[in-house]
Amino acid sequence: MIMTFKEKLRGQKPLLGTIVSLPSPELSELLSLAGFDWLFIDMEHGTMSSGEAQRMLQAVKNGCSAVIRVAENTPMLIKQALDIGADGVIVPLVNTASEAKQAVDSARYPPVGNRSVGIARAHDYGMNFTDYIQRANDSVAVIIQIEHEEAVRNLDDILAVDGIDGVFIGPYDLSGSLNKLGDVFSEPVQEAIRTVKIKCSEKGIPIGLFLQKTDTIQAELASGTTFLAVGTDTFFVWSGAKQVLESVRRL
Ligand code: 3PY
């Protein structure tokens, strides 16, 4: 039996993922074949349409999970991401408890929430309709992003909302909200990140984080981060190309 992303989040093993923003099924296929545990498919930034995202989900192999970051916290975008078969959603900029509740409710069928019912890829186009709608509330992961100082101030209320499967910290947006745009290692940003980690750990909520590079991974895992998105597809392509060019030009 294949584990759902939600089950993996609760497991002992840290999950290593990466951000994918280029709309290419070949790319999501390749990154899954490379061995990532999960892909963070980014529809918040970039040009990806839901048809393109669906084809990227269809291409994922190797037991890799694929979670979509929706462009914003609306029932329509959350429903669409789940209907095309994402293993979960990452909902950006959740700053209050009512926004957290809206995210959770949009991802859960009634009576728990208000996800509307339709027939799509997630339901095997209707072939597996009843089974899917009966298990979706338990199998789909809802991850909220804490990435604004307002969210850090409201964290106790946000984390009291039922149904949050993980918190993904957004260091860059956090840095902007703290007047330290881009300076994610500045003390105010690091302090906010520490606060989020402590409060999530107290509640047993899995913590995720984006890292541009791998050098702080060990420290992250030691401080309780359990699911990581390291690097981006665009950076992998650029840095691989750059490395070849530099080594050739040194000859
Ligand atoms: C952030 O750093 O703000 C993110 O959301 C990561 O993509």
From TrEMBL:
It comes from Fibrella forsythiae. The keyword Lyase applies. Belongs to the HpcH/HpaI aldolase family. The keyword Phosphoprotein does not apply. This is 2-dehydro-3-deoxyglucarate aldolase. Pfam families: HpcH_HpaI. Residues 21-236 form the HpcH/HpaI aldolase/citrate lyase domain. Keywords: Lyase, Metal-binding.
